[in-house]
């Protein structure tokens, strides 16, 4: 029942996300004389792909992951895939979004999918909203502003354990490459998938 509700909600959101290109062009135009900001993409989903979502569900189920943390909620497409996974493992998701307007719409989407009680939505800068996180993290999905990947990784590193997976989207972009270059190769293994768009970091 829940799974179907989630699948239907994700399908509706992907349909709406088809207009993202136009919204992104508008966002880029606004930032002609300054660096891009999250607010420039306030109306855009910028979601992970359906294939990535399916892979995330598999990762959660195969590893029996229960404690999921996500950086970058947007309107909640990726979070709904995470919810689909943790429905089977009895887990929960913490997700964090800088923009209040996006987070509120994401919350509505979680209600539509019937999984709002499994998802803790934190509104604000991830460096603040996740600052006091003291629980172990099984899966950490990095899909927010890429200049925060490295500080967030370092801040939450004490919460990783030997089976944790850190899933880095847009791993082929300059700022993401910095985190991949900086992490200890003695401690972590990095596997690139989706034509290097995704990096999967394991201990
Ligand atoms: C690529 S989108 C996330 C897409 C989402 N994961 C999905 O697949 O549907 C990145 C999101 O990160 C948010 N963001 C940017 N900087 C942030 C910050 N400092 N803290 C929390 N969220 C942030 C943006 O507002 C944007 O909605």
Automatic annotation (TrEMBL):
Which enzyme class? transferase
- Gene3D superfamilies on file: Vaccinia Virus protein VP39
This entry's Gene Ontology molecular function terms read: methyltransferase activity
Which keywords appear in this protein's UniProt record, sorted alphabetically?
Methyltransferase, S-adenosyl-L-methionine, Transferase
Q: Which SUPFAM superfamilies match?
A: S-adenosyl-L-methionine-dependent methyltransferases
PROSITE patterns to which the protein is assigned, alphabetical: SAM_OMT_I (PS51682)
**Taxonomic source organism:** Polaribacter ponticola
Enzyme Commission numbers on file: 2.1.1.-
Give the matching InterPro entries.
SAM-dependent_MTases_sf, SAM_O-MeTrfase
Provide one Gene Ontology biological process annotation.
Answer: methylation
Name by which UniProt lists this protein: Class I SAM-dependent methyltransferase
């Amino acid at each position: 029942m829940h799974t179907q509700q989630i699948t239907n909600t994700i399908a509706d959101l992907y349909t709406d996300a088809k207009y993202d290109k136009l919204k992104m062009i508008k966002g880029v135009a606004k930032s002609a004389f300054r660096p891009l900001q999250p607010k420039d993409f306030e109306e855009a989903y910028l979601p992970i792909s359906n294939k990535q979502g399916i892979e995330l569900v598999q990762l959660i189920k195969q590893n029996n992951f229960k404690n999921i943390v996500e950086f970058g909620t947007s309107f909640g497409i990726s979070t709904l895939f995470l919810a689909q996974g943790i429905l089977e493992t009895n887990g929960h998701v913490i997700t964090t979004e800088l923009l209040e307007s996006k987070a509120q719409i994401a919350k509505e989407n979680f209600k539509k999918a019937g999984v709002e009680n499994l998802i803790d939505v934190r509104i604000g800068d991830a460096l603040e909203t996740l600052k006091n996180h003291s629980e172990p993290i099984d899966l950490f999905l990095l899909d927010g502003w890429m200049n925060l990947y490295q500080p967030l990784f370092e801040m939450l590193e004490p919460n990783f354990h030997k089976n944790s997976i850190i899933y880095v989207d847009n791993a082929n972009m300059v700022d993401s490459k910095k985190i991949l270059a900086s992490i200890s190769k003695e401690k972590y293994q990095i596997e690139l998938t989706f034509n290097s768009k995704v990096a999967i970091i394991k201990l």
